[in-house]
């Protein structure tokens, strides 16, 4: 199981209200005790933080707010000593607007070679309109016009925020420099690399219009044949990186963030000479519905089998509404990148389902990714004051979409009041924590055998111990029940119906998300040792 550390919100070691590498290092024993195999740590690079560090100004250093390279080395050494691997986040589709390359490109002016590492183009309509109709993931057009010494001039492309100009991967200099970055981190002993925004890294030459209707929002999971997403040439980059990774000793893992149209397109990212694994967003986006979930599970396994890559399962991340909240809503599928205007949730129902979903996720064949705080059953914080919001989505959407800050609120570790051990007492965390999180701290849950933390610890321990087998074999317990065996050692039953499901004859209870007796209550799951 890989645990996602959203660094800004995990643990603050230096008392500035922002999570950092020393803070993370100090909490490694918690992660080892939880049963984590590896960490994926979100960007720690020097950054103006226009997008929480996904706007990188130097890919081969650490932002002083997060620590130093020596802190990273110490983190990796300590993690390895505890049997935990470390995966770094590589943001290669774009840089920060403060990256020396982009500054040089702006200073050099139209037509200069410094501009060829990015996409600078003349505007249409005599220069006043963007070069094409492409849109930004955070809302609005994907182009911003440069104002030079002589007034407005060319436009540059940014599929994310204007502070994140897209790199042109047809530039040999760009590709060579990222080879050096990949080697830099692998040389330091990290075990893997998460590839940010993987499908964005190639564009159709000539940058033709995509045909987006006016006011369209980013819908990459629906796009087919889009000139700025999932373009075939993107796979050349991954083949290149795989060749680099394969030259290192040990198991070095590449995992991509690729939100694309369906499992067949996704499987292309994990062909034998490309990346090893990829996040499964179809699973994350699925509603709490047995048919929909089974379709995703079957579709994923069927699409990945021919390329021989393991599946991954993920319920939440720093980009999506936390699934306790999602599953408490009538419309329980995930929305895109914080464009989430769904009505309020029934959080008790959401937590019941989230606990059941944990047992489902951890029983499926392949790897599981867990987002920090998921093991504490944290809900989305939906009432952050507007002045606290920092996600660029809030501004870019003209204050119509609140963005992703609600899933990024710093973790509650201990104590009765903010900062709940996230930072030293008296320090204000970068996003406010709800007072109601006092009952959800890791410390409070550690002592309670019925807590969500205890459920995750028990499930992760069993998952390591049980001799599970491939493939998964479905059992038919009714249309609204997901039931399957992983060989003779593990049977998983998830009740998504409104009625109790009798358990008689199905096996001995190993672990339940509720309190399974003779029947399995709605919205709960159980692991059984088949009779
Ligand atoms: C995906 C990251 O997970 C997200 O947080 C970021 O905003 C975009 N990529 C752009 O880098």
UniProtKB/TrEMBL annotation:
GO terms for molecular function: alpha-amylase activity. PANTHER family: ALPHA-AMYLASE FAMILY MEMBER, NEUTRAL AND BASIC AMINO ACID TRANSPORT PROTEIN RBAT. It holds the Pfam family Alpha-amylase. This is Alpha-glucosidase. CDD domains: AmyAc_OligoGlu_TS. One of its GO terms (biological process) is oligosaccharide catabolic process. Belongs to the glycosyl hydrolase 13 family. Residues 4-408 form the Glycosyl hydrolase family 13 catalytic domain. InterPro entries: GH (IPR017853), GH13_cat_dom (IPR006047), O16G_dom_2 (IPR045857). It comes from Geodermatophilus aquaeductus.
């Amino acid at each position: 199981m890989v645990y996602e550390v959203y660094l800004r919100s995990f643990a603050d070691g230096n008392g500035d209200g922002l999570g950092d590498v020393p803070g993370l290092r100090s909490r490694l024993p918690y992660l080892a005790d939880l049963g984590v195999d590896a960490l994926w740590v979100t960007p720690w690079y020097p950054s103006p933080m226009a997008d929480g560090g996904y706007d990188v100004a130097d890919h081969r250093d650490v932002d002083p707010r997060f620590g130093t390279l020596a802190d990273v080395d110490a983190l990796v050494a300590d993690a390895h000593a505890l049997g935990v691997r470390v995966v770094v986040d590589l943001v290669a589709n774009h840089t920060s607007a403060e990256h020396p390359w982009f500054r040089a490109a702006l200073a050099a002016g139209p037509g200069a070679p410094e501009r060829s590492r990015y996409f600078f183009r003349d505007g249409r309509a005599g220069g006043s309109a963007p070069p094409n109709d492409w849109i930004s993931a955070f809302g609005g057009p994907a182009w911003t016009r440069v104002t030079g010494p002589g007034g407005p001039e060319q436009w540059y492309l940014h599929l994310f925020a204007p502070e994140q100009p897209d790199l042109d991967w047809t530039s040999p200099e760009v590709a060579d420099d990222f080879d050096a970055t990949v080697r830099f981190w692998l040389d330091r002993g990290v075990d893997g690399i998460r590839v940010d925004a993987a499908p964005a890294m190639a564009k159709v030459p000539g940058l033709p219009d995509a045909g987006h209707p006016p006011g369209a929002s980013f819908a990459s999971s629906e796009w087919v044949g889009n000139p700025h997403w999932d373009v075939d040439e993107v796979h050349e980059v991954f083949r290149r990186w795989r060749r680099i990774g394969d030259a290192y000793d040990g198991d070095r893992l590449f995992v991509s963030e690729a939100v694309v149209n369906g499992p067949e397109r996704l499987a292309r990212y994990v062909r034998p000479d490309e990346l090893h694994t990829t996040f499964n967003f179809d699973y994350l986006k699925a509603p709490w519905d047995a048919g929909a979930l089974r379709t995703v599970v079957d579709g994923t396994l069927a699409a990945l089998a021919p390329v021989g890559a393991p599946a991954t399962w993920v319920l939440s991340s720093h980009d999506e509404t936390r699934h306790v909240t999602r599953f408490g809503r009538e419309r329980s599928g995930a929305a895109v990148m914080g464009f989430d205007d769904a009505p309020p949730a029934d959080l008790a129902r959401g937590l019941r389902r989230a606990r059941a979903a944990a047992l489902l996720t951890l029983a499926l064949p392949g790897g599981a990714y867990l987002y920090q705080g998921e093991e504490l059953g944290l809900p989305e914080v939906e009432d952050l004051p507007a002045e606290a919001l920092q996600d660029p989505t809030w501004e870019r959407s003209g204050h119509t979409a609140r963005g992703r800050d609600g899933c990024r609120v710093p973790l509650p570790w201990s104590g009765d009041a903010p900062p709940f051990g996230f930072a030293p007492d008296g320090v204000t965390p970068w996003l406010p924590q709800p007072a109601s999180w006092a009952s959800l701290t890791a410390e409070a849950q550690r002592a309670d055998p019925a807590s969500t933390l205890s459920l995750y610890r028990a499930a992760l321990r069993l998952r390591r111990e049980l001799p599970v087998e491939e493939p998964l074999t479905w059992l038919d317990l009714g249309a609204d029940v997901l039931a399957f065996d992983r060989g003779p050692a593990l049977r998983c039953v998830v009740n998504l119906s409104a009625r109790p499901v009798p358990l008689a004859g199905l096996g001995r209870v190993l672990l339940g998300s509720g309190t399974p007796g003779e029947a399995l209550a709605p919205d709960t799951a159980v692991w059984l040792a088949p009779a």
